[in-house]
Specification:
Length: 112
Amino acid sequence: MKYTCCFFMILLVLLCVGSESEASNGLILAWGDYDGDGIWETGIFRVTSGLWAIRGITRVYFGGSTDKPVPADYDGGSSTEIGIFRESSGLWAIRSISRVYFGTSGDIPVTR
Ligand SMILES: [Ca+2]
């Protein structure tokens, strides 16, 4: 059951990736396993304010209107970290982990 649920969540994410429609209302889906229990949580990134709202886990402000959300497991700890990619400067900012510059304007961030 857990894997079936994950499959449909991954399918939903794949359907949304690359689509500009999710950003048209100021929200971008940000699914991930933010607490590392093996089950993905529902999350959103509110473009206008930089709010990350992860259901049942946290609400934090990280990033802004020109940033692309790039949630992923950056430290290999089996949980998803909040992160943004700022295309104008190539900044990758991963909350509580790192800030590095890699890439430039026109690049598409790839995390999985
Ligand atoms: Ca989880």
